[in-house]
């Protein structure tokens, strides 16, 4: 095999591997559910407040040095906070609130702008809470591969946040 042939085979393999990443989904969703002993309105009140959210913020559990600074109103649309910690920095802003749902726009700078939603459904003895994240991985092949592992990584974070929420509302 000549050097030229080896280089052509290597380039072809790299091109095929890169092209195959475009077969991976551009949109990724992660969802977790838990039951808490609180009424839906209590859960939404925490979820829609920049300070209330801190009662169950999963990142505070794993990063005692997490820096948080609030902006906007204390609660409702536009309520938010900036964060800077070992897992990254960015902002989280309440984008929409209803009696059963709070939606957040997350800005992680070059890492993306996922949207998270906390939905609450009344059940006997409390609420079922669903925490969901939707992210557009775009056309970046590295981000699309990263998307394959999102459920494992973010799922643990959501589980921690839901456990924190259950403790905060007990």
The biggest sheet amounts to:
7 strands, antiparallel
What share of the residues does DSSP label as strand, in percent? 25-35%
How are strands sequenced across the largest beta sheet?
Answer: 1-7-6-5-4-3-2
- Order of secondary-structure elements: HEHHEEEEEEHH
Shape: elongated
- Percent helix: 25-40%
Low-confidence stretches: none
Rg for CA atoms? 20 Å
Q: Tell me, rounded to a whole number, the average pLDDT.
A: 89
How widely separated are the two ends?
70 Å
Give the helix/strand class.
Answer: alpha+beta
The total of helices stands at: 5
Number-wise, the strands total 7
Describe the structure in your own words:
The chain contains five helices and seven strands. The chain is α+β, with helices and mostly antiparallel strands and 170 residues long.
Describe the structure in brief.
With 170 residues, this protein is of the alpha+beta class. It has helices at residues 3-20, 40-47, 58-62, 141-147, 150-168, and strands at 27-36, 67-71, 80-85, 88-97, 101-107, 115-123, 126-136. Helix content is 34%, strand content 34%.
């Amino acid at each position: 095999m000549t050097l030229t042939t080896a280089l052509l085979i290597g380039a072809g393999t790299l091109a095929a591997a890169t092209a195959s990443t475009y077969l991976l989904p551009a949109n990724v969703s992660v969802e977790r559910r838990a039951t808490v002993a609180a009424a839906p309105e209590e859960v939404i009140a925490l979820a829609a407040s920049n300070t209330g959210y801190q009662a169950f913020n999963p990142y505070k559990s794993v990063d005692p040095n997490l820096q948080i600074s609030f902006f906007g109103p204390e609660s409702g649309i536009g309520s938010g906070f900036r964060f800077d910690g070992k897992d990254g920095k960015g902002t989280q802003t309440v984008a929409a609130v209803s009696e059963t749902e709070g939606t957040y726009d997350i800005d992680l700078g070059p890492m993306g702008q996922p949207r998270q939603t906390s939905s609450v459904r009344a059940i006997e003895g409390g609420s079922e809470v669903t925490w969901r994240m939707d992210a557009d991985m775009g056309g970046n092949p590295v981000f699309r591969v990263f998307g394959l592992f999102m459920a494992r990584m973010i799922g643990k974070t959501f589980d921690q946040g839901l456990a924190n929420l259950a403790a905060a509302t007990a």
